[in-house]
Amino acid sequence: MMNDEIVQYWLTEAAESLTVADHLVAKKDYSYALFFGHLAVEKMLKALYVERHHKNVLRTHDLGRLANRVNLPLDDTRADQLDVMTTFNLEARYPDYKRAFRNKCTPEYTKRWMKIIKETYTWLRSHLTS
After folding, report:
1. Which structural domains are found in the chain, ordered by start?
2. Predicted TM-score (pTM) of this structure
3. How far apart (Å, rounded) are the C-alpha atoms in residues 33 and 22?
4. CA-CA distance, 74 to 9, in Å (whole number)?
5. Dihedrals φ, ψ of 106, to 5°?
6. CB 82 within 8 A of CB 64
7. In whole angstroms, what separates CA 101 from the centre of its chain?
8. CA atoms within 13 A on the CB side of 108
9. What letter would DSSP give residue 94?
10. Which of 111, 3, 90 is nearest to 48 (CA)?
C-alpha cells in the first residue's frame, strides 16, 4: 500500500472506533465506550505517525509515547489526558477482580471523558496535512 492509503486506513479505523464508542455510551456500556474512545485517539495518532514518518506504526497503545514520536506540541494538560486515556485500554481489557474501572465509569465520568476524547480526536485531525 502507498503511504496515503495507510494514512486513510488509520483515519477510517479511528472514525469507526469513535462511532462504536458512541454506540456503547448509548447502550450504557461505559467502560468499553472509553476503551473504544482510546482506540479512536490511538488510531488518529497512528495516522499522523505514518503521514509524518512514511513507515509502519509503532506497536504500542501508549498515547503519550505515540504523541511524542509524532512530535506533537503537548502541554501538561494534554499530556495528562493522554496518560489517563491510555489507562482505558488497559483497565477495560484487563479488569481487576474488584471491577474498579467499571465502577468508576459512571455516566458523568464517561460523559466527561468522551468529551475530552472527541476534543483530542478533533485536535489530532487538525494536525494532518491530508
Report:
1. 3-126 (1.20.120.330)
2. 0.93
3. 7
4. 25
5. -75, 170
6. yes
7. 17
8. 1
9. S
10. 3
Question: Amino acid letter at 74?
Answer: L
Quote the CA–CA distance of 60 and 36 in Å, as a whole number: 15
Mean pLDDT on 11-19? 98
Question: For cell 468499553, what's the residue?
Answer: 32
Which residue reads 488497559 in cell numbers? 90
Look at 2-6, 8-12, 45-49 and tell me which has the smallest mean pLDDT. Answer: 2-6
Q: For the residues of 23-91, what is the DSSP string, one character each? A: HHHHTT-HHHHHHHHHHHHHHHHHHHHHHHH-SPPPS---HHHHHHHHT----HHHHHHHHHHHHHHHH
For 128, the grid coordinates are 494532518
Cell of 129: 496535512
* pLDDT tens by residue, 35-66: 999 999 999 999 999 999 988 887 888 999 99
Take residue 24 and report the three cell numbers written for it: 456503547
Cell of 95: 479488569
